[in-house]
Structure formats: structure tokens, C-alpha cells
Please model this.
Amino acid sequence: MAIQLKKDNLIIDENIGLVRKGVKLEAGTYKRGSAIGLVGGKYKLIGEESYTVDTIDGILADDITVTENEKATLYLTGQFNSKEIVLKEGTQVEDLVAPARKVGIFIL
Model:
């Protein structure tokens, strides 16, 4: 017996789309798929200084070299391939899965 979804206002869409947001990153070169954290209003690569897996805010949409006051596009939600996620060395993708899920980022 197949499970049927109750049609009401609770579920907006059964197919989750990508939600994007432009954010200012610190100067540097970043790769598409970089896991980006948010601490104190600043965005950095997960694994930098105090940017632990619990600070995940999005996944970078494009390769980018940031000089100053440029915006980069983050995916705030979506399903992502764990083999394509970029983190600073010493941080494991497996440790990012649960915190990312809490903010609507699904790493499979």
C-alpha cells in the first residue's frame, strides 16, 4: 500500500528547489561546492578558525575569486553530492551531514 500525502497547506512543494542568496565572502579563492559557515555576520569556509561544521549556512554555487565587497552565491537549501563538498583540510564531510540537514542542506 502506497503512502499518500495529505493535500493541505502544510507542504508547499514536494520537490525542494534550490534557494540562493548573495553573500560577501572574505578575500580569497573559493571552489564551487565549498561549505560556507556564518559566524558573527561573516562568511568563511568551514574549517577556518571558529567556522566549525555547526556554523554551516550554505554551499557555494560557483568558483570565485573575491577581492573586496563582491558577492558570492550560496545555495541555502538543496541536495548535494558528498564527494563534491569542499572543506578546509582537517574537516570531514561526514561531520557536516547532520548540522547541514538542520538548515535544509542535504548531503548525500
Notes: The first strand starts at residue 19 and ends at 24. The CA atoms of residues 81 and 108 lie 5 Å apart.
